[in-house]
Amino acid sequence: MEDLRYQKTFDHLILEQLGNGKTITLRVTGKSMHPLMRQGDSIRLEKCAPGTLAIGDIITFKKDGIYLTHRVLWTTKKGNRIGLITKGDNEINIDPPVSANHILGKVVAIGRANRTLRLRTPSWRFINRLLGVLFLVETTSILLYRFTVGRFHPFGTLVLVNMKPSLLYLRLKRRGLHLATRIID
Description:
Strand 7 and strand 8 (about 115-120) form a beta hairpin. This protein has one domain (about 1-150): Umud Fragment, subunit A, CATH 2.10.109.10. The protein contains three helices and eight strands. The protein is globular, with a radius of gyration of 22 Å. It has helices at about 1-20, 120-150, 165-175, and strands spanning about 25, 40-45, 60-65, 65-80, 80-85, 100, 105-110, 115-120.
């Protein structure tokens, strides 16, 4: 109960600071945006209008009580509602759609040690757009591959074959040497 109250207070303070036109700095704790962002890096956020976000922009949003910082791959607009498709650079799958009211802000700078990477410069805006398009193509290719394998494979899905372990594998395993691994059902 105490943690929930603390979290709501923290959320309120962040939104209040961003609403007043200030930037906030948060610490990166995950690996989903590696190598651009690493654990321990600091990110500077500023408030942004969801309609101004484009492919390649990096945003921080709250999903299921957790703050995530991922790259925008696609934006959708239906009437007044805006939805975003995001993905971490180091992730394979895309995130569930993000609605505008979950967006905390846009990442405008990344700090590591004594260096700051300013993402608003023309060169970084271009690089981020290019990376956004490349990750969109990658994600589309993965989805297309999954669809075609499931549709055209003779058994409809990938089939795992039951394999017996080789004699060498069993000997190594008995001696505690796990140099090679194998999936065995």
